[in-house]
């Protein structure tokens, strides 16, 4: 379901990312394939430096369908960013990818809290994340973080996943990370 990023999947991912249903919501909205390749190379380097963790989301037959990242890793916290190509909407990939990635982060890394910032108008993402039992709205609980993500014109809701909540709800979840 998840694998470490590499440059071989960039073409397929770029084609999925440029779909108008996806493009406005990706963290790095690249204007060209070359720019996407450059950003992917940067993410691979950042992971080697320990400032982000980035994975490719795969379908059942191993085709790349999106990405999931933990970025701004600091003091055992980080921000989660996920996108999935439009042909894969509504098929459960988002939830399965998040669960596998969170298991990797909480069981294999020293992450304690993961933040998700979702644009207030992104109803699809808000509904998807609110289905997950371990995700909590965090606008008030982490008010400083909430204020820091809402300093521009774009407005976000803040959600959080605590290690203890995830582990309690998952009951020793198994995760699938390809190497």
From TrEMBL:
Residue intervals of the N-acetyltransferase domain: 9-132
Matching InterPro entries: Acyl_CoA_acyltransferase (IPR016181), GNAT_dom (IPR000182), N-acetyltransferase (IPR051531)
Protein name per UniProt: Alanine acetyltransferase
Native source organism of the sequence: Paenibacillus cineris
């Amino acid at each position: 379901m998840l694998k470490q990023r590499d440059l071989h999947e960039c073409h397929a991912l770029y084609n999925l990312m440029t779909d108008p249903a996806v493009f406005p919501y990706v963290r790095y909205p690249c204007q060209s394939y070359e720019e996407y390749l450059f950003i992917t190379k940067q993410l691979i380097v950042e992971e080697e430096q320990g400032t982000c963790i980035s994975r490719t989301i795969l379908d059942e037959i191993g085709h790349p369908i999106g990405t999931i990242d933990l970025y701004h890793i600091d003091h055992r916290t980080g921000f989660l960013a996920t996108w999935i190509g439009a042909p894969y909407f509504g098929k459960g990939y988002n939830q399965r990818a998040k669960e596998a990635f969170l298991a990797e982060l909480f069981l294999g890394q020293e992450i304690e809290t993961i933040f998700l910032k979702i644009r207030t108008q992104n109803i699809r993402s808000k509904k998807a994340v609110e289905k997950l039992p371990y995700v909590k709205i965090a606008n008030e609980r982490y008010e400083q973080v909430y204020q820091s993500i809402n300093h521009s014109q774009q407005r976000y809701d803040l959600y959080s996943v605590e290690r203890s909540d995830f582990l309690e709800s998952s009951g020793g979840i198994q995760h699938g990370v390809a190497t």
